[in-house]
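Annotators were shown the component list below and the corresponding predicted structure, then asked to write short factual statements about the assembly.
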Amino acid sequence: MNTKITAIPMNELEPSPDFSPDSKLWTENITIKYGNNRVISQNLSVKIPNKSFTVIVGPNACGKSTLLRALSKLITPSAGHVLLDGKDIMKYKSKEVARKLGFLPQSSTAPNGITVANLIAHGRYPYQTLVSQWTSEDEAAVLSAMEVTNTSELSDRFVDELSGGQRQRVWIAMVLAQQTPILLLDEPTTYLDIAHQIELLELFKNLNAQGNTMVAVLHDLNHAARYANHMIAMKEGQIVAQGNPSDIVTEQLVEKVFGMKCTIIDDPISHTPLVVPLGK
Amino acid sequence: MSHIDFGRRYIRIKKPFKWRIDIRSLVVTSILFVITMVIGALALMMGSLDVSGQDVLSALTGKATGMTKTIVVEWRLPRVVAAIIFGAGLAVSGAIFQSITRNPLGSPDIIGFSSGSYTGALLVMLGTGPVSYLGVAAGALAGGFITAILIYLFAFRQGTQGFRLIIVGIAISTILGSFNNMLLIKNEAEVALTAASWGIGSLNGIGWKHIIPAMIFVVLLLFCAWVMTRPLREMELGYDVSKSHGVRIERSQIILILIAVALIAAPTAVMGPVSFVALAAPQIVLRFAKTAESLIPSAAMGALLLLAADVLAQQIVPDIILPVGVITLSIGGLYLVWLLYHQARSAF
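Structure shown to annotators:
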């Protein structure tokens, strides 16, 4: 996949997640309920290592998206705390959180007839006020977000008329325009073909190498193992394993989490674990 | 530094406020404003007694005296000003509801606030006998707000769902409509006749003392709506995205609904329910401005629509002044048919 995203040669960018205890985002014994009764997660404590590319994996409805939403203050845990920079996330003003972490939901709809640049400019909302609605910083942030995501040429197009891959890059540009040190992405590659999936994952890897903490929910275990430097495996609202994918992705773990027998081989390109299902 | 190609042209303002103004919307608003002023001037000149442009000008600048002054300043001017300000209020109310429901049908005259205001006004008129203006206004306001609360309770579950709001609104609107008819039938013909004519929506016989409080109220509300435009547009990106951008959704939504209900209730309290301006103005202006970033073009279109409809109502049948509601209802009815046709076509 030939993308313009790789401005710096990849081999010089050895991602260096900071696994020291000073994580900037973690949860302490949170309980998350859906509606009033159904408990999704109980007593969940998760630490997102600073400057890591963390991927959350697990079967459908295991609570991984819910965890991501709790981490980004979209839902309020019924017990426990989510801490951002050491402070309870609920004690922040909404816009303050939005300047520290960006979130992209699994699917979003753009307003009718909005152009790409105008949609990306919405990422600047947390910095804007009634009297200061468009500054040089806003302009610079949008320009750089478009450059990084390779959407500059699309800027005057209508979002409605883009292809799925282009559209997803535009949404990611919107989150990047928010200029937050932490980015949370809920299944960002789900509706894309394989080439566009890899293109995006390479982009995330670069963003991580540039110092952003990336947290993504992914469905594809092999993508997760290849691109993440920290993995959280969840099942039924609880964490089953976490750590470097090369250490934790084992046949036992896959069977435990997904209930599927497999064999693990070495990915000949990235030398990360490659999950090969055994079938019946 | 290179510049962003937004696909639209903007004027960038750096002082005193840092703003980005859409040129096309600005042009559309200016054109609408000029047309409104021209029609407004014509409205001051025309009537059972024609006044020359020069006399109108001297009346407005306070130089004229006697009959000319009375006709222009006391009779015709309040009517023109009311049409402009109330029209703007109705249109902005419609624009807010259409944005919240994300549906061009989600306008307050369709969802039942007008019927609710009418019910409130009717109850006052039929209950207290001799009709006091303030009583009717209070009744209309209360009716509008109670309807809003009812619809909110029925339609809102874990945030807004546009379509649900519209369906519930239409249902409540229909129920209130039959209730209104029942009230009219059950009462003495004379009182019912006054009440029914109020129900069509009219600016006939409006003077300064009737409209000043409502006008001040509407102007303040328009300012509030302008302040709330950014969270309103942000919420069009959906719950997750707007919340993660720092919009306090529940709070913003309630404030916006209150503003929009008051913007429809206050004019309704004065002139009765005038339908379709709220429904049509934001959609018509969208076709010209090609963006709905700002509410101001909608306001300008609403002002023009209501003023033009009122002038038409006064001129269309010789010697008879129709209520403006008849005109907006007829034109708006055609528009609604067209809208439903297009919605149905794009849905299937």
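Statements collected:
1. The longest helix of chain A spans residues 194-209.
2. Chain A touches chain B through 48 residues (CB under 8 Å).
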